[in-house]
Every structure is written in C-alpha cells, then in structure tokens.
C-alpha cells in the first residue's frame, strides 16, 4: 500500500505580531515590537503550501487559534464583557494581553508529536498534543490544538489522540520540533528519534546555563509509552546544552531528518558518535541504511545556523528517491551558508536540490519552514480517513487566499491588540474558516 509524508502547515492567524515573548529564541527577542503584517505572513505561508502541492507533495492545512484568548485572560482575573476584558488587560497588564494575543500556533511542528501506525503497538497513528509549558503564550494552545486535531483526524480505527502531558516544566514537551522519524519507506516500521534538552528527575544530565531547555527526557519517554513504541525503534539523545545557550531552543533549529537521512550540525548532540551509531544500528534492523550529513563548524558556525535557519528546513523525498531541501531566504542572504548549500547539492550526497522561500514574517519570530509544518506519515487507507477539507487543493488554496484578503490586517503593532474590534475580526474570520475546512465547533467562542 502506498504511504506518504503529509505536511500540515499552520495557517498564520489574524493577530500575528512581534511580542518578544520567547526568551532563548534570538529572533523573537530581537524583533520585539517590530511592525508585523498578518496578511503578508499568511500569504507567505500559503505560497509555500501551494508550491509543495504543485511539486506533487501531499499538503494539508492546520487552522489557527482564537486570539486574543479571552478565556485565558478571564482565568487571570480580568472580568466584564469580552471587550472589557481586553480593555482592562491592555490598561493594566499589556504583557499579558500580548501573550494572550500571539499567533504562535502557526508553528505546527510544536502542535503535537505524531507516531505513524507502522511504529505503534495498536497500529493506529498516535498524536500527543504538546503542553508547550515553557512559555505562557504557548501553554494556552493545546486545548484548542487537541480539538482541531480531533476534527482533522476523526476516525478511531486509524487515529488515537492523547491529551497534553501534565502541565509542569518537568514534563515540558514541545512536540515534533524535538522528534524525527527515520524509515526506509513511510509505511514501514521506523526509528523514532527523541531529542531532549535536560532531564527533570536525573541530576546526572547536564543542562544549559543561560537559556531554558524546553523539552525534558521524561516528557519524551512518556510519549513513547503513550504511543506504544517498541524500544527497538526508539533512540533518545540529549541536545548539546551549549547550543541551547546559543539560541537553539528546539532541536529543529540544528538538525532535520527524513527517510534514511539525518542532516545535522556537528555540535547538535551530546555524545554525537554514540547517537549516530545507535540510529544507524536500529535503522539497519528495520531494513534501512542511515546517511548522516554532518555539517562541520568550519563550514557553518552554530551562530550562522541560528541566524540563517539552515537546519530549520524541510527535507523532502522526491519520487526518484533523491532529496530536496526547502530553506528560508535568509540562507541565500548568508554568503557562507549559501556556499555550503551550493557545495552540498554539487556533491554526490542524498540532497540534490535546494529551494528558497520568503517566510520573513514568521522567521522574525524564529519560525522557519520546518517550524511551520507538522509531518504526519500516513498509509493510503489512513490518508483516506483524514477530513478531506484540510488537504490542500488548487481551489482550497484560492478560497484561503480570498479568506485572508477579506479578514486580515496589513499591519499590526502592539497597541492594536487593545482594539476590541480585533477580537471581533478574528472570531468572524475563524467562524468562516471552520465552515471552509469543515471542522465543526473547535473554538472557545463557538462552544462556550
Ligand atoms: N518552532 C518555532 C517556534 C517559534 C516560537 N516563537 C514565538 O513564540 C515568538 C512569539 C513572539 O515573540 O511574538 C517559539 O519560540 O516557540
């Protein structure tokens, strides 16, 4: 039976702005208070989705969230009508309003962790929503994320959904950004690779000193248990704490894997040789042959990787078995990174082509091509069970562009978040979107 990797890209929400909310994420911190364009951001994301669809890849869409999150503000003590809640928060606690207004759910690599049916004990595709509890503005995403995933993958025979892990930092979980899967073919058992930043319960593991490690070993282990993964098909690795301290807040800022290929910086992991050897052995027992493309620091420094987002790329398998790398424009603007990429595709390795996309609006908040997509490997029968309206087609693309143009602002700054009209605009847009994508009622304003 055929099997595919389907990329579900996050549709950027109408409140996309630069709140400077993510300590440890260099782009988010340095672009704080810049002027954003929600419309341009959404269009840039849609252009990438369309391009992949036109290249023949399976492409899906994941809906944004209701923002400002009035329910979250109410839980923090703001009261009155919805408009009053927003006004009071703006007057007395602007940082909280900004946090409750972030469009951060666009980075769907952080929506959940997914294990394909070929890897799990019951043969179903398993999803665990990420609690994202390192940052308040992201910790409020998972209840709606769970409802949206349930509406997209609404078939109990094929899909199993798990609620987010306990909402404490000891089980800090950032979803697929710290998870990669290797396999010879998408429909066959593979090796799931979990990369964590620290251990919460075992003091023998080192930890970063400057910036937080968002993902814990214990969270990754819990997900492997929930999904019913076989130890023979699981590898855990600790991210190098030194690179977290240089701004690598998720593993997908320093490594990306697909099929039988791992593309990574030489400083990405602690005990790198052991990690690669274990991946190699476990994949070999699944009938695959790992190729690790290791980028030396002489070619690209960690700092250059963080600024260009070289590794926050999409590594895609083409029909002929070779691979294509989707990188952000920032890679072409960096002379050394671009030189490295030119050499990479000229060499005899698995990566034969590089395509560049302008994702500046998202990049300025630290979200590149890989952050913007959730990968779900599906066999044909599982793909047939997905809500068909969330799979991109030329006509859905046209509909979504028209929807963005009708509802999104061209420009947004922090003071605009205080405008109660923004909430009305957001709800009107999302109400229409749930009809376009046939999601049913998934937003708090639709169900409360
Ligand atoms: N995978 C990419 C995630 C980027 C995301 N940035 C943010 O939330 C920045 C939002 C702001 O600063 O407005 C994060 O750090 O989790």
TrEMBL record:
Pathway: Amino-acid degradation; L-arginine degradation via AST pathway; L-glutamate and succinate from L-arginine: step 2/5
Keywords assigned: Arginine metabolism, Hydrolase
Molecular function terms from GO: N-succinylarginine dihydrolase activity
Highest taxon above the source species: Bacteria
Pfam families: AstB
Enzyme's top EC category: hydrolase
Protein EC: 3.5.3.23
Active site positions: 174, 250, 371 (nucleophile)
InterPro entries reported for this sequence: AstB_sf (IPR037031), SuccinylArg_d-Hdrlase_AstB (IPR007079)
Catalytic activity: N(2)-succinyl-L-arginine + 2 H2O + 2 H(+) = N(2)-succinyl-L-ornithine + 2 NH4(+) + CO2
Gene Ontology BP term (one): L-arginine catabolic process to L-glutamate
Binding site for substrate: 19-28, 110, 137-138, 214, 252, 365
Similarity annotation: Belongs to the succinylarginine dihydrolase family.
Subunit annotation: Homodimer.
Function: Catalyzes the hydrolysis of N(2)-succinylarginine into N(2)-succinylornithine, ammonia and CO(2).
The name this protein goes by in its record: N-succinylarginine dihydrolase
Taxonomic classification: Bacteria, Pseudomonadati, Pseudomonadota, Gammaproteobacteria, Pseudomonadales
